[in-house]
Amino acid sequence: MFRRAFWFTAGAAAGVWATTKVNRQLKKLTPESLAAQAADKAVEAGHRLKDFALDVKAGMTQREDELNDALGLHQDPDRPDNVTALPGPRRTRAIQNDKTTPVKFSYDRNEDH
């Protein structure tokens, strides 16, 4: 008698447990639940993308500082943080156009053949 009562109770408990598990899984597969899960994943992906962008920006700033130091470009205290001072002009005579010799451009189509 006790044996039958034990197995009846164990079977009923297993049935209740299995029914509860199945109902939980079915609730997870409803359209509203799937939409909420997708929204949570999208928010999480957005946070990861933001963290990645901040890491890239920090790396760019660090590399820019390294390059500025290597090239001798120093920050001017009168300028904003994102603008660097360039060195003075070099060899300006080589860059300037010499006005003494006029440059004549002529194009004759027959010269090409």
Order of helices and strands: HHH
How many E-type strands? 0
Helix % is: 55-70%
Number of helices: 3
What's the short story on this structure?
The chain has 113 residues and is mainly α. The protein has 3 helices and no strands.
Primary descriptors:
3 helices; elongated; mainly alpha; 113 residues
Structural features, described:
- With 113 residues, this protein is an all-alpha fold.
- It contains three helices and no strands.
- It has helices at 2-28, 31-71, 92-95.
- The model has no long low-confidence stretch (mean pLDDT 81).
What does the secondary structure layout of this molecule look like, with pairings?
Layout: H1 2-28, H2 31-71, H3 92-95
